[in-house]
Amino acid sequence: MRDVQAYFAEFFATFALVFIGAGAVIMDTLSGGALGLLGVALAHGLVLMTMVYAVGHVSGGHANPAVTAAMWVTRKIESKKALFYVIAQLLGASLAGLFLLGLFPAATANLGVPDLGANVNFLQGIAVEAILTFFLVFVVFGVAVDSRAPNQVYGAAIGLVLTFDILFGGLLTGAAMNPARAFGPALASGYWATQFVYWIGPLVGAIVAGLAYHYLLLDHKTLKKMR
Question: How confident is the model at residue 225 (pLDDT cuts 50, 70, 90)?
């Protein structure tokens, strides 16, 4: 029963992240840039922070297949559970994309699908996404896995790293750092042009960050495992 609750938690958290995050991109487009990059970054950061606080005690609040992958390679989540986490995340992202499709035309910012900037090529996009995701997952390990961190700060820290990552990378790649964030709106809009960037980059960056923190910084005697 506890595992089922965790899967639902991941579903709802990812739904919220994609619906609000991609929705903010759409609203920025429809308003002629009224939100701006700062507004879009804050929308993503605030919704992730809120959902991490809401469901972190149930599932760990991954809301991101890349985070789950990092937990899996460092043996902080079992293989079967990790698989169902990713399925729940992709289902939540897909439903969010379909809700957005019901509210807005698919052509409106491609329903918030992240995309490469005009002067950013495929490999550069992967590199940017990998580095940004490295920061995100490194912070997740530092504040939510490492038992030496103050428990009260983990949601805010995770939300803030998403915010500053988008402030830097939003104009380069959209700064998804999350395969589900790209997948849900792409499924609803039918825009798949650069989808591989948002799987390869985040997964590589997350796994490197997880391994780096696990083997170089983590105190294994006092390890706090995420669910």
Answer: very low
DSSP state at residue 176: -
pLDDT band at 1 (very low <50, low <70, confident <90, very high): confident
Note whether residue 45 is domain-resident: yes
Please tell me the predicted confidence (pLDDT) of residue 223.
54
CA atoms within 13 A on the CB side of 145: 27
Cβ contact 116:197 at 8 Å: yes
CB-facing half-sphere around the CA of 84: CA atoms within 13 A: 14
CATH number for 46: 1.20.1080.10
Indicate if the alpha-carbon torsion angle 156, 162, 166, 168 is positive or negative: positive
Please name which of 1, 155, 144 lies closest in space to residue 74, comparing C-alpha atoms. 144
Domain count, the chain: 1
The answer to whether 62 and 136 are in contact (CB under 8 A) is no
Q: For position 34, what pLDDT does the model report?
A: 96
Report if residue 132 sits inside a domain: yes
